[in-house]
Specification:
Pfam families: Peptidase_U32
Number of strands: 21
Number of domains: 4
CATH architecture of the largest domain: Alpha-Beta Barrel
CATH class of the largest domain: Alpha Beta
Structural class: alpha/beta
Family: Belongs to the peptidase U32 family.
CATH topology of the largest domain: TIM Barrel
Helix content: 25-40%
Protein name: U32 family peptidase
GO molecular function, one term: peptidase activity
Strand order of the largest sheet: 1-2-3-4-5-6-7-11
Keywords: Hydrolase, Protease
Distance between the termini: 42 Å
Shape: globular
Length: 430
């Protein structure tokens, strides 16, 4: 049986490496404003993207290039140059969103596999066949599609690869095709510059057009006003259903602008879920322990396993974002010898070690600190905060640029975390 692909976001070169180290089979990302995440496109230079592709291919992994914006006529010549430039880097596929860009990409890079973006809103056999006949090798289906409809598409088009989102932000729009941000702030979601207006709280008013009277509608206690704020998708506990269907070729995590910790934890959690499925040892609590550590808007299983009219819990009405169960306190450097502090750290704080799957953490007790295991997890306590420059600190805080010495070498990009507390942020909790 061919294993399903785990596809993770790569908003920067560092996040690309982290996603692979923590279990991703492939990543997606882009350069320039033709990618639907302008911010991450700006953070990825052509040179870094080329380095990322080389890094992936050296490890038998894949990189898919996002060229999934909706271009204007004035941009078409620039788009042609961009497609040719990206093709020279020899990625593993282009992700595009429109028939015209699909056709253009085929003309300019005829050997490049084409994946159709979720923004094309494919939900049925008819549309899937049109894009398949145009040359799409994979379709990233609409976020609103069901497993039943996926089975119908695969039955009619067995050679067409199907990719589905399993985790990350959901939009108050059809597969992300939103107009709200454009209307309110002039930032166009379908060209990569969404201002996330749907995440704001809104006050509601009633108006009488005959008299011009306007009055505010008062909400009941406990009823929030984040009326367009969709919860985050989380299908880790449904991986058995998804993989039992035998029609999904790739499961995708959203989040190119999320943190490096997000890239690591989502890759690790879904890697465990996928591998455990094929070993017939599913443990949903294990995956959710990791995913609940992330900041989120509340989680929903959305529409893949339930129809939209059956769902009544997909909106997070009470808050825009809440803390996860854990806070990142440090990230280990590529050499594995030191870490940079990401939150206030004191000697003898208990820091949980979040390392890539199947990596080795040595159990030690020396003058720098100790590592130990408890309840199947590995922890670190530092006896002293010894910086790389040999200075000893009484405490270190986020923003301190002095790498702190570890008592033993840890895998590159290992994260250190502690349980969250109420005073760690200003975001309202549910």
């Amino acid at each position: 049986m061919k294993k399903v692909e785990l596809l993770s976001p790569a908003g920067t070169l560092e996040k690309l490496k982290i996603a692979f180290d923590f279990g991703a089979d492939a990543v997606y990302g882009g350069v320039s404003h033709f990618s639907l995440r302008i911010r991450s496109g700006k953070e990825f230079s052509m040179e870094e993207f080329a380095e990322g592709i080389a890094y992936a291919h050296a490890r038998g992994k894949k990189v898919y290039v996002t060229i999934n914006g909706f271009p204007f006529n004035s941009q078409l010549n620039l788009l042609k140059k961009h497609i040719l430039a990206m093709a020279k880097l020899k990625p593993d596929a282009f992700i595009v969103a429109t028939p015209g860009v699909l056709k253009l990409a085929h003309e300019l890079a005829p050997d490049m596999p084409i994946h159709l973006s979720t923004q094309a809103n494919v939900m049925n056999v008819l549309d899937a066949k049109v894009y398949y006949d145009m040359g799409a090798t994979r379709i990233i289906t609409a976020r609103e599609i069901s497993l039943k409809d996926l089975k119908e598409i695969k039955k009619e088009l067995p050679d067409l690869e199907l990719e589905v989102f399993v985790h990350g932000s959901m939009c108050f729009a059809y597969s992300g095709r939103c107009l709200i941000s454009t209307l309110q702030s002039g930032r166009v979601p379908n060209r990569g510059s969404c201002a996330n207006d749907c995440r704001f709280p809104y006050e509601m008013y009633a108006a009488n057009p005959e008299t011009g009277t306007l009055f505010k509608l008062e909400e009941d206690d406990g009823v929030g006003t984040y009326i367009m704020n969709a919860k985050d998708l989380n299908l880790a506990s449904h991986m058995k259903e998804i993989l039992d269907s035998c029609v999904v070729d790739s499961v995708k995590v959203e989040g190119r602008t999320k943190t490096a910790y997000y890239a690591a934890v989502t890759a690790k959690a879904y890697r465990m879920a996928i591998d455990d499925y094929y070993e017939d040892r599913v443990n949903n609590d294990k995956y959710q322990y990791e995913l609940q550590s992330l900041q989120n808007r509340g989680y929903t299983d959305a529409y893949l396993v339930s129809r939209p009219f059956e769902k009544h819990d997909t909106q997070s009405l009470d808050f825009s974002m809440q803390l996860g169960t854990h806070q990142v306190s440090g990230i280990v450097n590529e050499e594995g010898t030191h870490f940079l502090c990401k939150y206030k750290t004191l000697p003898n704080d208990e820091l949980e070690i979040v390392a890539p799957l199947n990596s080795y953490v040595e159990i030690v007790d020396n003058e720098i600190g100790t590592t130990y295991e408890r309840d199947g997890r590995t922890y670190l306590k530092l006896k002293q905060l010894l910086a790389e420059n040999k200075k000893v600190w009484e405490e270190v805080h986020s923003g301190n640029v002095n790498p702190i010495t570890l008592p033993t070498k840890l895998p590159a990009y290992t994260f250190l975390r502690i349980p969250s507390s109420e005073d760690m942020g200003t975001q309202p909790k549910k």
